[in-house]
Amino acid sequence: MKFLVFLLSINLSLTVCSGQIVDIPDPVFKWGLVNLPVADLDGNGTFESDVDTNDDGEIQESEAEAVLGLEVAAYTHGGNNIQSLDGLEAFVNIEFLNCSQQEISIMDLTPLANLRELDCNDNLLTSIDVNNNSNLEVLFCLGNPIEGSIITSGCPNLINFQCGSLVPESQISLLDVTQNPSLEFFGCVIIEMESLDVSNNPLLKAFSVIGESILSINVSQNTQLEELTIRNTTIQSLDLTQNSLLKNVDVRNNNLLQLDISNNPDVLNLRCSNNQLIYLNVNNGNNSNMYSMIADSNPDLMCIQVDDVDYSNAQSCGGSGGGWCKDETASYSEFCELGVNEETIESLISIYPNPTSNLLTIQNQNGLVIDNVTLYDTLGRKVMENTEATELIDVSNLTAGIYFIHITTDSGIVTKNVIKE
User: Which of 67, 123, 378, 392 has a 20 to 30 Å separation from 324 between CA atoms?
Assistant: First the structure.
């Protein structure tokens, strides 16, 4: 009897010494942890070992706790991807996690207090909660059909944040980065928001956003910005006067009416095709170094202000860098007025009296159907809009100055200077 008790004691001691086994129900996840070099055990950034260091085919808690970095990205087993990361909560000391290109739909990151970098790109996540990961510096969750909100207010050290997806399409309706003052790189795809506040991100160097719902973007506080991408939005104006370090500007497929990079002397690449531009100023003193200036598909853009007309005309459209591209109706000039096409204005529509202090009359002598009348100030900001067919515009409430009236008809758009007295 004493011998039996002794054997039981030895068995219990061995069990305690070996530690608790972590329950990992997903067979693909477990197979990778046991058989592949997915673990960084010394924090040097290389993945030189599997997690099953005692080769018993299981993952003990002590083995999980020894892992500082884990890379379980892209691999399959038996033709299947990882679908669940249950058991990850045992990896309490992990600082780096890459689980991209799998089929994960749910992640619980709450126990991972030391997590600094997370790459979960290209999964099936519809939500992600990192609000308890206060040490997080890098968050990649592109290629996930995320819905609703992503809250990062609990991540004051966040430097790089990339989120959203085109296919499958994400539907992010709430994204607040105002509590991430260290943010330097930000990119998000398909945001269902009207605006995004980046005024509290003074260190931002690269900013990229895509989303049809976005009506306005203000980057005037982001003076360190070097890379700017705003695409497929409905914004009509963009002020870049405070972004003197910009090198690459991609603002294709928006509703921009004017764009001025004359205060951005380092720009090398400008892409602003498929907008509604009536004014484009690229006279920044650096045209000879710009390998790309693509401004085609702006049918109302008649004049592009440049450093040197001869140099601009000598540039070709196409090539590896993109070249210099414009519509045939646009011409280069060293001085352009904002959106003026006098021949079209004189032949189709006239306005009077001009100057005016109260009412402005639109005289339509060609039977054109007027769909929309919009007034802009000299910075390209919309100050008035009338979507009804009308020949009288009341400008009495506008402050004195120069404005630009944008008249949309069934045959095209005409633009004219207006002086308000």
Answer: 378
